[in-house]
Amino acid sequence: MEAWRIEQAAELYGIHRWANGYFGLNAHGNVTAKTQDTEVALLDIVQGMTERGLNMPILLRIENILDAQLSRLNEAFRAAIATCGYNNRYRGVYPIKVNQQAQVTEEIADFGSRYQHGFEVGSKPELITALATLKAPGSMIICNGYKDPGFIELGFHAIKLGFTCFFVVETPTELPIIIERSRTFGIEPLIGVRIKMTSSVSGYWNSTSGDRSVFGLTSTQLISAVDLLKAEGMLHCLQLLHCHLGSQIPNICDIRSGVVEACRYYADLLNEGATMTHIDLGGGLAIDYTGARLNDAQSRNYGLEEYCEGIVDTLKTTFDSYDIEHPVIVTESGRATVAYSSVLLFNVLNVTTFEPAAITGEAARYPALYPELAPMVEIFDYLNPQRIQECYNDAHFYRTELREQFKRGQINLRTRSIAENLFLDIMQRIVAILDTLERVPADLEGLKASLADIYYGNFSLFQSLPDIWAINQLFPIMPIHRLNEEPTRQAVLADITCDCDGKIDNFIDPWGGTSTTLPLHPPRESEEYYLGVFLVGAYQEILGDLHNLFGDTHVVSVRLNRDGSYDVVKEIHGDSVADVLSYVEYQPIEMQKRFRDTAEQAVKEGRISASERQQMMATFNASMQGYTYYER
Ligand SMILES: *Cc1c(COP(=O)(O)O)cnc(C)c1O
Q: Mean pLDDT throughout 415-421?
């Protein structure tokens, strides 16, 4: 047998396809987080956390990766602008809804200040976050979403404080409020209009655009808005055109054709007399989750440089043909900015295999004791590649027969158990033969998956990976260590909620396609086995819920250092049991009191001793303060 090489593991899990250079494998078979000048094994970080008393699951944030993505985005636009000879600049804004956690927005505001990276907000709480987080004067805030008078008032304060704060009009009702407040405050607003695009895109979020999109103004509403502003002598305040085709747009052609449509609106708003200066193309820059580089919902058929050049080149060509000055380019990339920087880490608690138990051989050794099993035992004699379909059919037929006999009391439980084991044994042997065949018979396609091991992971799908449940999102998943060993098992993953939906049985295969099972290592006695779910920085945290009362996981932000060490920059403890109970309106103090009363009653009635009561109370109180996940 040839020795297993680490490069084979890299190929098997496709790490170089999806990691965007941020993750790799080291010579010890560990997954590392990488930046330009350093790499740190995730296992070292996990061990460091364990020493600090933080149990799995942990959501790990790597600040350097977030910084690097912000740089790449801004630098790629800068480069495209230079290459295409575009006569204006790029201003990025981060849409807060993609990950609102304070550590994330604060890091974006801090590191992003060198690029004057701003925020896109869609609600009052998001606007308040932006106002309290951005520091650089002139920072841009794009206000999308439904805006009530309070929202608009805050926006005017932002302008007064020196922020470049645009109100993007999404509905006809907002404009009169903006105009009225502008009079009251004596401040001129910066106004944008969101258009309803007719260009539609492929992917999951295609209903964001098109005639039935719930967002943006129709052309009729747009013209009324222009007329209203003109009548109020405020048309010069209209300076920005906004459009957003949807998130995770897999096809660069859709993006380009959206840009062309946006340019037409922009040009005609100029013709109408507006002082247009900014074109905001929204989000949509996709992540290649599968690494397939395909026009497919979980992938994309372009890279970052191509995206930027596609936009800048289309804008330049179109505006030049209209003889229009080039506006500032704004984009609102959220997913692409934050997805890479978070990894969910968890340990495997248990494994169920579908291997036959040792008792299988008994029927063959003592045929006289088990005459009913003879036809099943005989299958082993003709189990070969030419006859696998026949063996598969026979095994099913005899198993059904034997199950019926059991129901009718014709065979006993022990015989039935041997029959089930013989069946499993035959199925496993068929799977082994299938692996050597060029073509798998259609009937047997699902067999391998149906015999896959179940690895129970210490996490909640609903809390930490809701998009897997909601929209069948694929995230790269792999062990973070032992990659110098061949993973010999095929598995599906189950979480620790008591919900049959809390499972993962769709994985990325080595070619960027999908597979129903994931290759894993058999866990070792007395050693934890850790898996990582990658690219989970966008949308997952806030969409997660408290199913089965599993709360927020611990979150640890680290910064990788050049010498291969890391600093724990921020550490946020996950919810305790008391925390999650209070979310559903229990009062932990009151619960302790009630439990104490129950225990005291038991002491009174002589069922437990006073010192037993003491012990019970200690356990109860400690559990209240404990982590909601499995603790060893
Ligand atoms: C959600 C959203 C974004 C972010 O989109 P991504 O595809 O995550 O970059 C940007 N702009 C608007 C208006 C949005 O609603």
A: 93
CA pair distance 69, 336, nearest whole angstrom: 8
pLDDT of residue 199: 75
Going by the DSSP 8-state scheme, the letter that residue 340 receives in this structure is G
CA 6 – CA 17 distance, rounded (Å): 15
**Percent residues over pLDDT 90 in the chain:** 89
Domain 361-448 fold is Methane Monooxygenase Hydroxylase; Chain G, domain 1 (1.20.58)
Residue 362 above 90 pLDDT? no
**Ligand 1, atom nearest to 248 Cα:** 7
pLDDT of 572 reads: 95
Calculate Rg over the CA atoms of the chain: 30
Report the alpha-carbon distance of residue 377 to residue 367 in Å, rounded: 9
* Burial of residue 225, with CB atoms counted within 10 A of its CB: 0-12 exposed, 13-18 middle, 19 or more buried: buried
Instruction: For residues 271 and 220, give the distance between their C-alpha atoms in angstroms, rounded to a whole number.
Output: 16
Residue count of the chain:
632
Helix axes 124-133, 149-160, angle to 10 degrees: 20
Class of the 63-340 domain? alpha beta
Domains of the chain, residue spans:
63-340, 361-448, 588-625
What are the pocket residues of ligand 1 if the criterion is a CB atom closer than 6 Å to any ligand atom?
95, 97-98, 120, 144, 244, 247-248, 282-285, 332-336
Dist. CA 527 → ligand 1 center (Å): 42
User: How many angstroms is it from 543 CA to the middle of ligand 1?
Assistant: 15
Residue recorded with tokens 């009653």: 601
In sequence order, the β-bridge partners of residue 60 are 343, 556
The pLDDT > 70 percentage for the chain reads: 98
Helices 388-407, 413-434: inter-axial angle, 10-degree rounding: 160
CB-facing half-sphere around the CA of 603: CA atoms within 13 A: 15
Give 339: exposed, middle or buried? Use CB within 10 Å, 0-12, 13-18, 19+.
Answer: buried
Confidence of residue 247 (pLDDT cuts 50, 70, 90): very high
Measured distance CA(24)–CA(42) in Å, rounded? 10
**Residues with Cβ < 8 Å from 200, sequence gap 6 or more?**
206, 209, 210, 245, 254
Pairing of strands 554-560, 58-62: parallel
Assign 368 a pLDDT band (cuts: 50, 70, 90).
confident
Residue whose tokens read 């209009």: 193
Distance 605 CA to ligand 1 centre (A): 63
